[in-house]
Amino acid sequence: MELTTSNFTTFEKEYNFVKEEVVEKKEEKPPVQPKRAEKITYKVQKKDTVQSIAKKFGVKPETIMINNQTAMDNKLKVGEVLTFPSIDGLYYKLQKNEMLAKVAKKYGVKVVDIVDYNNINPKKLKAGTTLFLKGVTLKKYKEVEQRLIAAQQAKEEQKKEKAQKGKKGGGAAPPPDTTGGGDDGGTAASYSGEGFAFPVRYAGITSPFGNRYHPVLKRYILHTGVDLVAKYVPLRASKAGVVTFAGNMSGYGKIIIIRHENGYETRYAHLSVISTNVGEHVNQGDLIGKTGNSGRTTGAHLHFEIRHNGVPKNPMKYLQ
């Protein structure tokens, strides 16, 4: 087009219109989707450390620690399998009747971030759903764990006080039912909150606590727990606490470790099914898995341990 005084105004209007149209199209960019966390499964090699593994996968050491209890305790074993996200943060298992707002507040994250990073519909969440919580630090994880243990301790103290008042107010209370309900998932003992309860229906002991000749290793070593007769039966938490490990561990096979008040922890090994997750709070009697034959064993049973400040104790002195 040849520009003249008469047509310049018309050209200018058309040019500005086209210019505005181009600008509008440039502004119509799709929203940036957050990077998804991928679940990393890693088998510990010789000379591995938490720091070296973290560097290898581009995450912080504390991310490996808060997702794996042995890493938290700096007790990595060759052959042990670690699981952690590819982005710094925590895998968290949603509990019954728990809302995202509560989870977000507890760990100091935003609800919108939980929704975006997990690509979920908040209205369709179910108990047991594993969520990725981006940015959860070791400090925050420990704060939450301590609050959970303190809250449970207060709850159990209230139960004890209530039980004592009941004894003062009348006749003797009936003895607790420790017969259990069989292998259909019934309770294994009377879960009153007093001490430790049998994690399975009691059917006998195949190997007691103490020094013994190991049937697989063929040498005398300390048996750090008791082997209970329990062939592929429902497993329940012996006492309320926080799950600090749920996965595979050398020798133990599939194992769950629960941390309790006053420096105690329980271990449930050689499982076939794990139905809980690290960071989850469990009550005494909650279903947490199923016994089995995983790890170093000669047959299906439950290897059960009670430890105090890291030292193995004879479980039968606490269960009876």
TrEMBL record:
SUPFAM superfamilies: Duplicated hybrid motif, LysM domain. Residues 40-84, 90-133 form the LysM domain. CDD domains: LysM (cd00118), M23_peptidase (cd12797). Residues 155-164 have a biased composition (Basic and acidic residues). It comes from the Bacteria. GO terms for molecular function: metalloendopeptidase activity. Gene3D superfamilies: Glucose Permease (Domain IIA), LysM domain. The keyword Transcription does not apply. Pfam families: LysM (PF01476), Peptidase_M23 (PF01551). Residues 155-186 are annotated as: Disordered. The keyword Nucleus does not apply. Keywords: Signal. SMART domains: LysM (SM00257). This is Cell wall endopeptidase, family M23/M37. It comes from Fusobacterium vincentii ATCC 49256.
